[in-house]
């Protein structure tokens, strides 16, 4: 009999609850602080931009939170996602290690981000929101939210970092196909955007700037709320379907992962695969090594400081306790747009502080080398973000070969790279770098 490669769960095996690690931390997570008073933020302070039900979830101490049936019905379009054993990659590396990956690129938008976009649209819908405003860098989050809004009958407006708007037209077109309105940021839609444009007409935009525009739009437009695709506790929470499914699928494979890798931008796809395994470390004394992988050029968790910092450039968000490079840090324009954030999710930062997870940083050329090797052996072209996790998994598998050690490796393949082929073009033609004016 040939070797089993795919581990598929039945529809009824999809998780019914999200897992909230806040309930199991041995030390409580430091609360977010008001930027003016430096006192812990109260739920009403966040009410201007988020609906009450999501604010409650952000602060909930409950361990298992039920996934609403309406959300599960939409998850069912692509969940449970497959978990596969990368036997051809193992062979290419001549490693005794077994390599498994969870494939989140199977969602309609092509990444893990719909896992939170769908519940965020749902909770806004039931709270009476008519329209959501958000920002997007390369467009992964914007397209996921556009998809989710369409299914719940909400309007969606996306401020897309200008350089990506022009250089990466396909995700913009995907958002428009899902029915969203997309503005290149800085835009003339907001006061802040107009001010930036007046000072610097050729400004290429940045994520921090686009956040400021989306927040201004939110507070000035009736029945509008804001949605964020990473960093926050409720986003980490929604992603835990990934790890819960992975635990069942590794059981089907009859193996226990020794080491787990996930790439980190704001930290949420990593949180998604990691937190259910972190719970088993805390409660069942499992020894799993869990590693966050980030780019060397934006090394928040490996080189940043653990302290209170702002989430945005304009200093409008609450202060969060996190590993940070400083909110004015402007990362170079690498091709993994989803990993260019100055901070790390507070929950992921707390895990690192408590020694529950490790972190490594990898250089861009190694990332693309890994992505190409993965595509050529397993067939899936990975998103450049996800290729960070692949690069770390490959390093580990090579070490296993050198030390003749048989290990079980699991990584999260957070998205496919079919809309990132321009980045592959840059790599294949030896022109990987390229700087823009971030202003
Ligand atoms: C957005 C994105 C990331 C980074 O975001 P996290 O919150 O760190 O998960 C990683 N991979 C893909 C494919 C993305 O779209």
Main traits of this protein?
439 residues, alpha/beta, Rossmann fold, 2 domains, 7-stranded mixed sheet, 4-stranded parallel sheet, 18 helices, 15 strands, globular, disordered C terminus, binds pyridoxal-5'-phosphate
Structure description:
The relative contact order is 0.15. The N and C termini lie far apart (59 Å). The longest helix has 19 residues, at 384-402. It is built from 18 helices and 15 strands. The strands form 4 sheets. A 7-stranded mixed sheet has the order 1-4-5-15-10-11-14, sandwiched between helices. Mean pLDDT is 95; it is low at 434-438. The chain has helices spanning 43-46, 52-59, 69-75, 87-93, 114-126, 140-152, 162-167, 169-177, 191-199, 207-220, 233-238, 241-253, 268-284, 300-303, 346-353, 364-378, 384-402, 421-428; strands spanning 6-7, 17-19, 64-66, 83-85, 98-103, 131-136, 155-161, 181-185, 224-226, 259-263, 289-295, 305-310, 319-324, 358-362, 408-413. The chain is globular. It is an alpha/beta fold. The protein has 2 domains: 6-13 and 76-110 and 239-428, 3-Layer(aba) Sandwich (Rossmann fold), CATH 3.40.50; 17-39 and 55-66 and 112-233, 3-Layer(aba) Sandwich (Rossmann fold). The protein binds pyridoxal-5'-phosphate. Pyridoxal-5'-phosphate (PLP) is lined by residues 111, 113, 140, 230, 263-270, 338-339, 383, 385-386, 414-415.
Topology at a glance:
Elements lengths: L5 E2 L9 E3 L23 H4 L5 H8 L4 E3 L2 H7 L7 E3 L1 H7 L4 E6 L10 H13 L4 E6 L3 H13 L2 E7 H6 L1 H9 L3 E5 L5 H9 L7 H14 L3 E3 L6 H6 L2 H13 L5 E5 L4 H17 L4 E7 L4 H4 L1 E6 L8 E6 L21 H8 L4 E5 L1 H15 L5 H19 L5 E6 L7 H8 L11
Parallel strand pairs: 5-15, 6-7, 6-9, 7-8, 10-11, 10-15, 11-14
Antiparallel strand pairs: 1-4, 2-3, 4-5, 12-13
This protein binds pyridoxal-5'-phosphate.
Pyridoxal-5'-phosphate binds next to helix 13 and helix 17.
């Amino acid at each position: 009999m040939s070797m089993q490669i795919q581990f598929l769960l039945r529809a009824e095996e999809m998780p019914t609850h999200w897992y909230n690690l806040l309930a199991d931390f041995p030390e409580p997570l430091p609360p977010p602080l008001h930027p003016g008073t430096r006192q812990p933020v109260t739920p009403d302070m966040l009410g201007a931009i988020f609906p009450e039900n999501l604010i409650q979830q952000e602060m909930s101490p409950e361990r298992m939170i039920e996934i609403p049936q309406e959300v599960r019905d939409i998850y069912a379009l692509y969940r449970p996602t497959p978990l596969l054993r990368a036997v051809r990659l193992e062979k290419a590396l001549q490693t005794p290690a077994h390599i498994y990956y969870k494939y989140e690129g199977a969602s309609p938008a092509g990444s893990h981000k719909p896992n939170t976009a769908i519940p965020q649209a749902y909770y806004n819908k039931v709270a009476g929101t008519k329209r959501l405003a958000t920002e997007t860098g390369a467009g992964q989050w914007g397209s996921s939210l556009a998809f989710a809004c369409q299914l719940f009958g909400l309007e969606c407006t996306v401020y897309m970092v200008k350089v990506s708007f022009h250089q990466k037209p396909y995700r913009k077109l995907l958002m428009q196909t899902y029915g969203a309105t997309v503005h290149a940021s800085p835009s003339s839609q907001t006061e802040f955007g107009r001010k930036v444009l007046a000072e610097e007409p050729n400004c290429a935009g940045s994520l921090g700037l686009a956040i400021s525009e989306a927040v201004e739009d939110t507070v000035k437009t009736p029945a509008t709320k804001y949605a964020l695709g990473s960093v926050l506790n409720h986003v980490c929470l929604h992603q835990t379907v990934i790890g819960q499914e992975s635990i069942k699928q590794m059981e089907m494979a009859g193996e226990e992962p020794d080491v787990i890798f996930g790439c980190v931008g704001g930290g949420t796809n990593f949180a998604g695969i990691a937190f259910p395994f972190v719970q088993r470390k805390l409660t069942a004394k499992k020894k799993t090594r869990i590693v966050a992988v980030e780019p060397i050029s934006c090394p928040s968790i490996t080189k940043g400081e653990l302290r209170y910092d702002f989430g945005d450039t304009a200093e409008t968000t609450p202060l969060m306790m996190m590993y940070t490079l400083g909110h004015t840090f402007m990362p170079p324009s690498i091709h993994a747009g989803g990993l260019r954030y100055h901070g790390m999710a507070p929950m992921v930062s707390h895990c690192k502080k408590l020694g529950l997870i490790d972190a490594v940083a990898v250089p861009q050329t190694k990332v693309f080398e890994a992505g190409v090797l993965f595509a050529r052996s397993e067939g899936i072209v990975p998103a450049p973000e996800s290729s960070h996790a692949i690069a770390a998994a490959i390093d580990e598998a090579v070490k296993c070969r050198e030390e003749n050690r048989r290990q079980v490796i699991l990584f999260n393949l957070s998205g496919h790279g079919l809309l990132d082929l321009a980045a592959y073009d840059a790599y294949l033609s030896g022109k990987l770098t390229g700087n823009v004016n971030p202003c």
